[in-house]
């Protein structure tokens, strides 16, 4: 039976095999991404703005995609239409976005950024890029830059992965 279990699980049985390597790597990656995101928010001045991370993400999408529908924003941000509606209400009240009827379909509203929103997002992104550039220059050796570029490519592929299972 032990030989069968070893074969079934793909290797020799141990008393405490621990989690599969991909699970452990996934947890380390998740932890590293959370720490890096928190650091980027801190370095960019995000906390002083008074908007939540979700609201800023939605605002960034409006700046990048606008004019854009709420349904498209919900899809881009992987959140419910109700969540998008809440964020849009806050952003409208702050004067950062405005909605106009879609010329092709008057039932839909298109969200567009106020120029101040574009400037705000640009400032935040510049702060993040500045921190990352300085950190790379300080921490990554010149002969490691190729490895970093490969890691970025892998992260982009992970972010774009379509597993066909609807996610978690």
From TrEMBL:
It comes from the Bacteria. Residues 22-160 form the HTH marR-type domain. InterPro entries: HTH-type_Bedaq_tolerance, HTH_MarR-typ, WH-like_DNA-bd_sf, WH_DNA-bd_sf. Coiled coil: none annotated. Transmembrane segments: none annotated. SUPFAM superfamilies: Winged helix' DNA-binding domain (SSF46785). This is HTH marR-type domain-containing protein.
């Amino acid at each position: 039976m032990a030989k069968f279990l070893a074969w079934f699980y793909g290797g020799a049985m141990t008393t405490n095999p621990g989690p599969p390597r991909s699970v452990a790597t996934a947890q380390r990656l998740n932890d590293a991404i959370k720490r890096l995101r928190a650091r980027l928010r801190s370095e960019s001045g995000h906390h002083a703005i008074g908007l939540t991370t979700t609201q800023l993400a939605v605002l960034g999408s409006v700046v990048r995609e606008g004019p854009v529908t709420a349904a498209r924003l919900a899809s881009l941000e992987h959140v419910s239409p109700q969540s998008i509606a809440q964020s849009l209400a806050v952003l409208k009240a702050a004067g950062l976005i405005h909605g106009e009827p879609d010329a092709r379909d008057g039932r839909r509203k298109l969200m567009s950024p106020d120029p101040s929103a574009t400037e705000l997002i640009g400032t935040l992104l510049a702060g993040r890029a500045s921190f990352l550039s300085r950190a790379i220059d300080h921490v990554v050796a010149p002969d490691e830059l190729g490895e970093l570029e490969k890691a970025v490519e892998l992260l982009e592929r992970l972010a774009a992965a379509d597993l066909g299972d609807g996610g978690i």
